[in-house]
Design goal:
By secondary structure, the protein is mainly α. The chain folds into two domains: 76 residues, no CATH class; 227 residues, no CATH class. It has twelve helices and no strands. Helix 1 packs antiparallel against helix 2, helix 4 crosses helix 12 and helix 8 runs antiparallel to helix 11. The longest helix has 34 residues.
């Protein structure tokens, strides 16, 4: 095929594609489904023509023209939609809970690591309170002294609750992101954080149980604990998922598997950020308040049930793209 014949046969396609691109630029919201499918078809045809021109007419102006035309079409077809309320709403209603369910096996392992460590530490310290020094180190001594005097450290003065809420929120975010980031060590650091947090919380409850004060701490944590711990377990699941991609990439390369898992994990962590804000506010204002224990329990159970119902059931009628 010579250049003249190539131009005569193929130029109508390029003209159609040019006209379609102009229409998209002017009024993209008025494009019909048939027009969008036609745009994709014309783009594929122009791409094939560009490949032919690069092979047979590499130094002709038509090759440069086709290269520019295909580039414009590619930019319009594959450009990212600006982040807006519609995307955020879709993420919250569909994508976030679907991503959570995809990580559920890893999140379950994260919960198991934390829970087993907490139960072991609780039983050991309940039987022998001095073992808390082995778990938490000598810096725990001031807290042990308060407990031995029958005191709890959970009282937060009303005037200080705003500052306490900010401090708690910062700590929660730090633990969540550290647990997630530990996945890059093949999950080893994530496992360590989950186990150490479980040992820490379990040993403190064991110490308080030995001095018959555990009910007071339970009353303090029950309002915010369901959401807060759930988010930490999810962060642990994200870290374990990334670690598993490094250890067992399957048919993909390790780099490809890591990128795929990390992309999903980052979206989940970002989705958890508002949950941490809510948990921090509850921990700063509701948990240390004088509300009856059953009100705090109701807050914890209601928020926990709502969160897990959302994670487990939202977006099931939609197919994740």
């Amino acid at each position: 095929m010579n250049l003249d014949e190539f131009l005569r046969q193929r130029s109508p396609v390029w003209q159609q594609l040019t006209a379609m691109l102009e229409r998209v630029k002017r009024k993209p919201e008025q494009m019909t489904l048939d027009e969008i499918e036609s745009l994709g078809r014309l783009y594929r045809m122009a791409t094939a023509d560009l490949a032919l021109a690069q092979r047979d007419f590499p130094k002709q102006k038509i090759t440069l023209y086709l290269n520019q035309l295909v580039g414009q079409a590619h930019t319009i077809l594959y450009r990212s939609e600006p982040v807006g309320w519609r995307q955020l709403r879709r993420f919250a209603q569909i994508e976030f809970p679907q991503l959570y369910r995809g990580l559920l096996p890893y999140t379950s392992v994260a919960f198991a690591l934390f829970a087993v460590a907490a139960l072991v530490a609780f039983g050991a310290v309940w039987r022998d309170p001095d073992l808390i020094y082995l778990i938490a180190g000598p810096n725990i001594a001031p807290l042990v002294n308060e407990v031995e005097q029958g005191k709890l450290w959970t009282e937060i003065a009303p005037a200080a609750r705003s500052a306490a809420s900010a401090t708690i929120l910062t700590n929660n975010i730090q633990v969540t992101f550290t647990t997630f980031a530990g996945g890059i060590t093949a999950g080893i650091f994530t496992v360590w954080i989950l186990v150490m947090n479980g040992l820490s919380i379990g040993s403190i409850f064991g110490l308080l149980q030995a001095h018959e004060l555990s009910a007071g701490l339970a009353e303090f944590v029950v309002a915010h604990g369901f959401v807060e711990l759930s988010v930490i377990f999810v962060a642990g699941g994200c870290g374990l998922s990334i670690g598993d991609a490094l250890l067992r990439p399957g048919l993909q390369s390790r780099a490809a598997a890591l990128i795929q898992r990390a992309r999903a994990a980052v979206q989940v962590i970002l989705g958890c950020a508002p949950l941490l804000v809510g948990a921090g506010l509850i921990e700063g204002f509701v948990s240390p308040s004088g509300l009856p224990w059953w009100v705090k329990l109701a807050v914890g159970v209601a928020t926990g049930a709502a969160l897990h119902s959302y994670w487990l059931f939202a977006g099931r009628e939609q197919v994740q793209p």
